[in-house]
Amino acid sequence: MTSTSTMKKTFSLSSCDWIGFDLDHTLIRYRLLELHTLIYESLCQYLVDTHEYNSELLNIPYDNYFGVKALIYDSLYGNLIQLDSNGLVHTALHGVNTRLSSEKIKEIYPHTLEDIEEDTSKRFICIFTYFEHSVSYLIANIIDLIDKENLYEKSSKNQINLIKKYSFFLINLYNGFDYLFNDFQRGNYFASIRKNPNKFIYKRLDVRQWLEKLKESNKKLFLATNSRFDYTNLLTTYAFGNDWQNLFDFIIVDCKKPSFFNNTNKQPFHRFIDDKNIIPVTIDEIIKDFKQNYIYSLGNSNDLHLIMSQISNKDPIVMYFGDHIKSDINALKRHTNWLAGVIIEELEYDSPPTIIHTMTHHVSNQLSTNDQSYIKGNRSKYFSSFFTSPSDSIIFDNDNINETKFEQTEPDAVLPCLSSYWYTYITKHAHLSLSCLSVLANLLIKLKDEEKKDKKRSPFLPWTKAFSKWKRPINPNSIPSLTSSNFDSCSIKSCQISSFNTLSR
């Protein structure tokens, strides 16, 4: 339960010395319908051309109303599943249209899957990112073809592996992703974005202005992305301009998250020359050449923190924004003392639940884009919201979520909605959640008139005095959250702040 003293504390970017960003779905915002369709069609074409899958796949158009973020594929039974906050399966779909009854779900999944993100059996595949999003619909169609014994072309000698009936094809999907994303000069994906970037990504001039204001306020900014330089350069040049590198004090490409954040990782940084020419460099060399604006690759967060410490002449407070639930948020929480900001684009059009006596959410459910195809195209007709789950339990005067039960007799019965598993997971690992960086950039524009009245106000965020006396070392139990009163005064659009009591390392 959140204490009164906790609720009086506030969170502030102004106390951060270094602010870092992921590239895809963080600094770069995609037109998701076009992105999902491109990846779906490219994978279908690869499977048909390379592995002789039934060409019927090419005639099934992508359904953007099918999936939601963070679906889980059970490769033993061939089901796409969703979990409630306890880790119990509440929705399961086999193929495109076969929805499992509540009785069948309880039979197959009688226990919680609360540690599913740590699963090492490879039975469960978590579909976390927007790059993988369309795969849920592709998998559902593949399952239907397997059940019809019609996965391959009639002329093909390939056969369905009945022992691994619902998992054998996954290697083909992995190889498809490798083919599409691991060579900038190969495949339909990169070629399509090179030809028409405007079709797939947004300009980010508002975010550029915000980044410039951060730098003017003596914040050090860094980019750490798994994308390689050629793709990074393509996206950022379009979104931010040809001089995009000047926006950052340190740029790391191909950094291999989540292992980048692992405190046992000793991978050295390399100075990037080109894709075939990278040079290992020491920490001292990086610090010496800091103002040369070199591009780096690989490396690890421990060395990066040492570099930041020497440049700042103190142990810096660092915040990193990313979108990946595991590679960004979980890895940061587990291995670093950095603050974690997560981009959840679903906040653009959907609201998390407020769970009484368990956690407090601060949400303003307003839109920051007028792209109606984007807005409408992210609501599933098959699965629950990313944030909520229909539940057979409800919370009363204590935190025992299972104290009172309501019998659910039909899959579509209307019952109280509670937080989903992954949303609960995020509130435990992230310090700040928002729909996109434009939320903060647009706030800057709105504050300009107020700044004229208050010369002491920071030019990039309204809650500026929150951490003015906060020093290292960080005590995880002292990390504050935004108060509801501060939230209202900030008028932040589509922004969620996790509560203090969920932030324990």
Please explain how this structure is put together.
This protein has a domain at 16-30 and 201-337: Rossmann fold. The chain is α/β, with parallel strands linked by helices. Helix 2 (32-51) packs across helix 5 (170-181). The radius of gyration is 23 Å and the shape is globular. A 10-stranded mixed beta sheet has the order 10-9-11-8-7-1-12-13-18-19, sandwiched between helices. Helix content is 31%, strand content 14%.
Examine the secondary-structure arrangement and name the CATH architecture of the domain at 16-30 and 201-337: 3-Layer(aba) Sandwich
| Alpha carbon gap, first and last residue | 17 Å
Radius of gyration: 23 Å
- Work out the strand percent: 5-15%
Give short descriptive properties of this protein.
single chain, 505 residues, alpha/beta, Rossmann fold, ten-stranded mixed sheet, 17 helices, disordered N terminus
What is this structure, in a nutshell?
The chain is of the alpha/beta class. The chain has a domain at 16-30 and 201-337: 3-Layer(aba) Sandwich (Rossmann fold).
Layout: helices, strands, pairs:
Elements: H1 4-7, E1 18-21, H2 32-51, E2 71-74, E3 79-83, E4 89-94, E5 98-99, H3 102-108, E6 124-127, H4 135-147, H5 170-181, H6 188-195, H7 197-200, H8 205-216, E7 220-224, H9 229-240, E8 250-253, E9 269-274, E10 277-280, H10 283-288, E11 295-298, H11 301-312, E12 318-322, H12 325-335, E13 339-343, H13 372-376, E14 388-390, E15 393-394, E16 404-405, E17 417-419, H14 421-429, E18 432-434, H15 438-446, H16 448-453, H17 484-490, E19 495-496
Parallel strand pairs: 1-7, 1-12, 7-8, 8-11, 12-13, 13-18
Antiparallel strand pairs: 2-3, 2-6, 3-4, 4-5, 9-10, 9-11, 14-17, 15-16, 18-19
